[in-house]
């Protein structure tokens, strides 16, 4: 789903909001998440997931075209960890624990 599709769907399901208002709401939410990550903050949306920043150390990479070594500088990359509720909805139900093998009966004495 693209941003414009999201805005159109939200506007259609919320008839009391005008499309420009929905565009402003969606843009504001995305801008706030982006600004928080740029500051190094973590953004947690309960039931949905958490956005955070992961640091990558500098390393020596390889140019795939020529094979020569290239120095890659340190950087921060955005990371998203889905929440339990989102994982459950995507997988079609509550999370299932792995099946356990039955235990042997314990001697009663």
TrEMBL record:
The answer to whether keyword Transport applies is: no
Q: Name one GO molecular function term.
A: DNA binding
Pfam families, alphabetically?
Answer: Bac_DNA_binding
Q: Does the keyword DNA-binding apply?
A: yes
Which GO terms are recorded in the biological process aspect for this UniProt protein? DNA recombination; regulation of DNA-templated transcription; regulation of translation
The UniProt annotation puts the region (Disordered) at 83-109
Record-linked InterPro entries: Hist_DNA-bd, Histone-like_DNA-bd_CS, IHF-like_DNA-bd_dom_sf, IHF_beta
Question: Any idea which UniProt keywords this protein has?
Answer: DNA recombination, DNA-binding, Transcription, Transcription regulation, Translation regulation
Q: Which Gene3D superfamilies match?
A: IHF-like DNA-binding proteins
Q: GO CC annotations? A: chromosome; cytosol
Identify the domain of life: Bacteria
Which CDD domains does the protein's record reference? Answer: IHF_B (cd13836)
Recorded hits in PANTHER family, A to Z, give:
DNA-BINDING PROTEIN HU, INTEGRATION HOST FACTOR SUBUNIT BETA
* Protein's job: This protein is one of the two subunits of integration host factor, a specific DNA-binding protein that functions in genetic recombination as well as in transcriptional and translational control.
Give the matching NCBIfam families.
hip, PRK00199.1
Q: How does it assemble?
A: Heterodimer of an alpha and a beta chain.
Tell me its family. Answer: Belongs to the bacterial histone-like protein family.
The name this protein carries in UniProt is Integration host factor subunit beta
Source organism (scientific name):
Falsiroseomonas bella
Species lineage, top-down? Bacteria, Pseudomonadati, Pseudomonadota, Alphaproteobacteria, Acetobacterales
Q: Which gene encodes it?
A: ihfB
